[in-house]
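Sharing a chain and its predicted structure for anyone who wants a worked example. Both blocks are below, sequence first, tokens second.
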Amino acid sequence: MAFRLTPQDQALLNGEAGAAVASAMSVLSAFSEALGAEELLDISRAHIDGCLFHGQVSLDFVERLVAGDGRVRVPTTLNVGSLDLIHPERVHLVPAAEAPARRLMEAHVALGCIPSFTCAPYQTRFRPKFGEQIAWGESNAIVFANSVIGARTNRYGDFIDLCCALTGRAPAWGLHLDENRRGQILFRLTGFPASQEATDGLFVAVGLLIGSQSGEKVPVIEGLPVPRDEDQLKALGAAAASAGAVGLFHAVGITPEAPTLADALGGQAPLAVITITPADVEAALARLSSVPDGAPLGAVCLGTPHFSLTEWKRLIPLVREIAPRCAVPIYVNTGRATLMALEETGALAGLTDFGVIPVADTCTYITAVLEQIDGVVMTNSGKWAHYAPGNIGVQVAFGSLEECVASAAAGRVVRGAA
């Protein structure tokens, strides 16, 4: 069937809600028709990935919508920008680069978006519920919403996500629809002990492996141990989306649409079965590090995606055990809502004396925050390790949270920390 608009959609296209909404509906309609969608559907919320300044076109698009009196029609959170508006002194940009980056973040707020500035909107009060139709940008947020929560969104990129927010509509296509959410490729963990521990490294490695081998197919994971918390699933999804195009995964017996293997596959046979062995996990993690054990460190970076309250509760005792302080700084990327909650309880008191530097509203692999980038940076994030070498030109060592803290204390890469 040909793409069609409802009378309400047509009214928006005709300008009944203003020039900005008409422009957004025009873009969204053309996009949806190109995809092969037959119609649009209502969304309950949106998350915008366009706050990060990539050039003048980013600013021109949003400011045009502001000039046309545009306002988002659903609750709309914002992804990270190029600045830490809470701690502006921590971002080292020249005024010519800082000014448009700030204007872009402010322009989104002028459209009625919520100034969350986090890549983990699922950690805020605007977290969707199972089955909700949403339009989210930012790769890790998309895969978390679809997989861990069971909400429904496609992988929306810059501009399209904002058009969805201004119209309250999205194409009825892809992962919004039941028939496209069943698993297609089965990844089976093989050769692991029955009591396999749910380590952070295992979840990162599985994410990297399914991301690099799934293409645009929906992967199903069988044999994954029950995670310690949802942050491990967050790390898996972020790694999968970084290493490939995964927008939804099913973990049998863990994620909400996969109580059984049959449920995950929609009652059909998988297109392929791929085994994941302990050796595969070890090799995947080894590829994240470009330096040997003992290499001198310049910094540690945590929180990509943004550090949750649960992760902070794991980190703070580890840091307080270090005396008198870290040899290198520990940068922790986190959402402003999480940071505010920590500050209200006094949980962060004295942590700066140990070398902990909270970074809000942005991330250390996409903007100039690190004081030293000519050395090695250690991280527990598969996503940070994947992108940082190309983005900011650093060498990376990957390790567990415990290893990262021990390494920060020693000033060199330390493995095997308890």
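Comments welcome. The first helix runs from residue 7 to 13.
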